[in-house]
Structure formats: structure tokens, C-alpha cells
């Protein structure tokens, strides 16, 4: 589900609340939603950055329950495809590499594939 870039800033701001929630189900759904936005165009990726959500994605990648980490991995991978080099650099500056690499130890082959493809996409 991709939304127009006009709506992206509003939607990402609304989901900033969800991604900060303590209830794991709500947080997972908010991160899933952000993974859909980061699969969009560069303006949609920028809306996520402008809303200050990259640190929250990284936080959920490192400290969330596994299903939330999985959604955060998709958000990172999608950003690495859809984003500019500067946008990917912003994600790296938020400390995404260590928690992303930690997912390589999991038993879920899909998560491993998503993680490795994103890591090697921007060498």
C-alpha cells in the first residue's frame, strides 16, 4: 500500500505515535506501515526522515520483539532500495548497521536474505 507523497508526512506523523507505543502489536503494525512508506519514492522516504522516525525504526530493529524486528528489517531494506545515497547515509548515522547485522544470527531465512541484500546494496 503506497500513499501519495502529499499524505506521507501526515501519515508518518500519525504513526510516530504508534511506533512509540509499548503495546507490541500496535508497534509492529506501525513499523509495518513505515516499511510500506519506505518502499515508495524518494519523497515518501524523506517524509519518514523528516518526521524523525529513523531512530525509532533502528530502536525497533534492535530492541523490539522478533516480529517487530522483522518489519523494521523490511523498512530498512526498502529504504536502501527506494532512498537516495543521502537518505541511506542518514539511516546509517542512526546506527542501523549493528542491529541489522545482529539479525544475521536468527533462524528466519527470509530475514537473513532481507538483511544481506540491504547491506550489500550500498557498498
Please outline what is shown here.
The chain is an all-alpha fold.
Question: What does the model show?
Answer:
The structure is a single chain. The chain has 123 residues and is an all-alpha fold. It has one domain (3-120): Leucine-rich Repeat Variant (Alpha Horseshoe). The chain has helices at 5-19, 24-38, 42-50, 54-63, 66-82, 85-93, 97-102, 109-121. The longest helix is centred in the middle third of the chain and has 17 residues, at 66-82. The chain is globular. The termini are far apart.
Please tag this protein with its features.
mainly alpha; 0% strand; ARM-like; disordered N terminus; Karyopherin alpha 3; 123 residues; Leucine-rich Repeat Variant
Radius of gyration: 13 Å
The domain count comes to: 1
Unreliably modeled segments:
1-5
Strand content: under 5%
Helix proportion range? over 70%
What is the assigned CATH homologous superfamily? Leucine-rich Repeat Variant
Annotated CATH topology = Leucine-rich Repeat Variant
Q: How many helices?
A: 8
CATH architectural designation: Alpha Horseshoe
Distance between the termini: 29 Å
Number of strands: 0
Helix and strand string, N-terminal first?
HHHHHHHH
Quote the average pLDDT: 81
Q: Any idea of the CATH class? A: Mainly Alpha
Net shape = globular
Strand count, sense and barrel status of the largest sheet are:
none
Q: Structural class per helix/strand content?
A: mainly alpha
